[in-house]
Amino acid sequence: MADTSADTIEIVRHQPMAFTEFVIVIAAIMALNPLAMDMMLPALPDIGSAFHIGSANRVQMVLSAFVIGFGFGQFAIGPLSDSFGRRPVLVGGMVLYVIASLLAIAAPSFETLLLARALEGLGTAATRVIATSIVRDCYAGRRMASVVSLAMMVFIAIPVVAPAFGQAVMLLTQWRGIFVVLTVYGIVALLWTIFRLPETLPENERKPFSVAAISDAFRATLTNRQTLGYALAASGIFGAVLGYVLSSQQLFTGFYGLGHYFPLAFAAIAVTIAIAGFLNARLVGRLGMRMISHGALVGAVVIALVCFSAAMLGMLPLWLFMTLSAGMMFSFGLMFANFTALAMEPQRANAGTASSLYGSITTLLGMAAGAVVGQAFDGTPLPFATGFLACTATALVIVLITEKGRLFHGQGRPV
Length: 415
Description:
It is a single chain. The protein is mainly α. 80% of the residues lie in helices and 0% in strands. It is built from 17 helices and no strands.
């Protein structure tokens, strides 16, 4: 764990911002992604009606297109930011996000809307990758995990309010109004970044933008057992979360018949992630990243087994589904920041590329798994419960392989 003097030296990199503003800005930048994702959930039926889409599963493409753009966009963002600095690439991505949101407002067809969503995802690839890289530029070890957890606590609070916020917007206007809100938020975040966030990658630490340099950085990242292992494990966790998000609107409004109360149920479950992020930020310095995240992973597998068994027996009432889903999200909230920090810990020399690859791997593999779960929806919770178990069990196996069969302590002192 970095000592106080070391932390003080690192804070210089994000001056003139103090620590609190730095965490809030990082969270606000990262929040562009979940806000654009989760505000759309209540609007899916209206979008399907507006463009005469008969299949509810096809309307899920409004979410899937966004995630695909987000996943593929991350491949280039890291190397670009390692060569040209964090600020220009971040600002460019945020400008693209605003333009894509304006395109969505005017979209004359479902295909144009999907293009706008993919471009929005591409823009948020910069915010996600570079936000993580900036934190890695400024902090290390458990201090980095604590900063990531604090940012994640604000960042993850967005899914709690986003569906309800989206529902409120639709009470005042129609679904295109959601994109007006996204545009305004994007502009505010962009201006805050331009005027307050400094460049955190000094010129003497930048890498040449060449095929050889990029290939070396990719190789160094992909051949690191810890980085690759935790990226693959996080993919399984993200797949379970995305499967839940893609299925949630149909489950809550269709199977459980909640109708317009769906955002409240979604928020009640999502708030547990924010609580977990807060606890993780407080405890990770004492307990370590592995102790917390490994314990949460084992807990998630147990919850998944209970959920799967109840769904198989047809004994999954709303109260039990919400309880298990809340437990799932709480455990995931204890894993995300720590898995990210563990993956990034060995990669200070390649922070941008490592963050880029980590984000691409987790997003694209998680998207593939989540899409399978979402498209398998058959009007019951069983496809989700099956995917939940498969994803978490796979993540546990990967972590065991990464840590050579030893949970909680890894291969050295507890981290």
